[in-house]
Structure formats: structure tokens, C-alpha cells
Structure to design on (313 residues):
């Protein structure tokens, strides 16, 4: 068998594996949705008891709550470059921290991820360049990503505590809270947005002035032309190509990793939580995942410091 034939066979096998994972993901998603509908009655009491129990452990071990990295670069493949304000491009090392005004650039056969507050993620495809315009955790947490070229996948989870998340391109500014979406910037500056989960508010900008705003939701997309400024924005169905499907699968794994960290926090108290409310391992797992994904919130009177604990701050 020739090299090209082997390559094609490998690609077909890979595609089949991805499709199987996608179908399984759809089935699991339906099961989880039905589960949350049935078990909503136990959400609030379990969330409260987790809050109360977790804080005991944290009081007994001062110093556990440490400052977390605001942004960290992970190199997935190939060579990736970074540049700080006023400096030249240089090769990056995986695991380094990023700060406001830092830029990241991938090449022809490279890809990378930026982890935000350890709980949200921006994935950069090949030939993509982004700059962190704002990265502030104060009374409100604001993140601004300037995307100059290429394709990114943005997943912002509620548990991150990010209050304002924006992606800016040469023609648009998009703001979200708790969503997953793709952004593509073409060579001429035209921009494409596609939403998998949540809501995305997009404003079309010409010469620094907002011309039109539109909101798109799950499985919707829009294309903003830079060379046709008066062309009205039209909403179309999101077409999920292989790259998007791979990111959705990666998001599932990212959530599993977050859940593992959450379980580490409450490991000594899991038996007490289950006994107190008579819930199973499956129910507890679904409640923790539901909180991470933003299916429900903490009670309105939950103290701020407990909220921060749940937001991995």
C-alpha cells in the first residue's frame, strides 16, 4: 500500500472515530438534559451543603486558596510564537503565563490553547494570531481577546467567574458569558461567528463606529463583510465541520478535568453529602457538572467568598 493510500486510510479511520464520539456525545447530552429536569428538586440543598462543607476544609488548611494563573499558554502542536508589548516575536514554551497585551501566533502546522482562570479556554488553529487586550479580576472579571487572523474556538464556563468576555476582530466586537463559539477572521478582515452553546451578541463596526448589532444563539452563525459595509447581517445555521466537532469533544474532556479538581476539594465529605440528601454517585456527578456548565446558580444569598470558592478563584 502506497503512502498516499495509507494516509487516506488513516484519515478515514480517524473520521469514523470522531463520528462515533459525536454520536455518543449527542446521546449523553440528551440523557443529561432529561436527568436535570427530573432531579432539579435536589439542586439547591446539595449546592448549599457542598458550600458549607467545603469551607470547613478550607478554614482548616489556610493557604489552600492561592492566586491562580489568569492565562496560561499550552502548545498543542508545532512551534508557537509569543510577543509582549514593545518586544519582538520569539518562540514560546508550553505552560508559560500570559498577561495583558501579550500576543500569540501559530504557524502552518501548529496549534495552541490559552487557559483562562484555569476554567475556560481559547483554542487557536494554525495560522492564527490573537492578543490579550484585557485580563482583569477585580469587582468584575473582564477578558478581551483581539483576534487579528485565523480561527479560534472559545469556551467560557460559568464557574470561571468571568463577568465580561469579548472577542474583537477588524470588523466586529462580540460579547458573551457562558458559551462556546468559533471565530474566523479572513485575510481581508471579514469575520465569521458560529455558536454551539449559549448566546453571542455581535456588533458590526465601521471606522470605529457600531453600525449594527445582532444576537445569535445555539447552532446559529453570521458572516460580517468588511468590503460590503452596508450589507445587512443574516443569521444562518451553524455548519459543524470536523475541527468544530473535535473542539466539542475536547470541551467534554475539559469539563471532566474540572470535575476531577472539584471532587478533590470535597473528597473527604462526599459520603456525608450523599447520606444527608440520599443521592447517588450519578446524581452528585450530574449536579457538579451542571454547576460547572451553568445549568443553575448558587442561591442568591450565598456569601461572596463561597461564590469565589466555587469559581476556582
Amino acid at each position: 500500500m502506497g503512502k498516499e493510500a495509507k494516509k487516506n486510510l488513516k484519515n478515514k479511520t480517524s473520521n469514523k472515530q470522531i463520528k462515533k464520539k459525536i454520536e455518543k456525545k449527542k446521546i449523553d447530552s440528551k440523557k443529561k438534559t432529561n436527568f436535570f429536569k427530573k432531579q432539579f428538586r435536589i439542586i439547591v440543598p446539595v449546592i448549599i451543603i457542598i458550600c458549607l462543607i467545603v469551607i470547613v476544609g478550607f478554614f482548616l488548611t489556610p493557604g489552600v486558596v492561592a492566586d491562580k494563573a489568569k492565562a496560561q499558554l499550552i502548545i498543542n502542536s508545532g512551534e508557537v510564537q509569543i510577543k509582549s508589548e514593545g518586544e519582538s516575536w520569539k518562540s514560546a514554551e508550553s505552560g508559560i503565563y500570559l498577561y495583558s497585551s501579550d500576543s500569540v501566533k501559530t504557524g502552518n502546522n501548529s496549534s495552541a490553547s490559552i487557559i483562562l482562570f484555569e476554567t475556560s479556554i481559547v483554542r487557536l488553529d494554525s495560522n492564527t494570531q490573537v492578543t490579550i487586550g484585557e485580563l482583569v479580576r477585580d469587582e468584575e472579571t473582564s477578558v478581551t481577546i483581539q483576534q487579528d487572523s485565523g480561527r479560534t474556538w472559545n469556551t467560557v464556563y460559568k464557574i470561571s467567574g468571568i463577568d465580561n468576555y469579548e472577542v474583537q476582530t477588524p470588523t466586529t466586537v462580540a460579547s458573551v458569558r457562558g458559551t462556546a463559539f468559533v471565530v474566523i477572521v479572513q485575510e481581508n478582515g471579514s469575520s465569521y461567528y458560529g455558536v454551539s452553546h449559549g448566546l453571542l451578541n455581535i456588533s458590526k463596526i465601521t471606522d470605529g463606529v457600531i453600525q449594527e448589532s445582532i444576537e445569535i444563539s445555539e447552532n446559529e452563525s453570521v458572516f460580517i463583510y468588511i468590503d460590503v459595509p452596508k450589507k445587512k447581517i443574516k443569521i444562518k445555521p451553524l455548519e459543524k465541520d470536523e475541527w468544530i466537532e473535535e473542539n466539542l469533544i475536547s470541551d467534554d474532556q475539559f469539563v471532566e478535568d474540572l470535575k476531577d479538581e472539584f471532587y478533590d476539594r470535597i473528597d473527604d465529605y462526599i459520603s456525608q453529602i450523599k447520606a444527608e440528601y440520599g443521592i447517588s454517585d450519578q446524581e452528585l456527578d450530574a449536579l457538579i457538572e451542571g454547576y460547572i456548565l451553568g445549568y443553575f446558580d448558587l442561591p442568591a444569598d450565598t456569601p461572596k467568598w463561597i461564590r469565589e470558592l466555587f469559581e476556582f478563584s
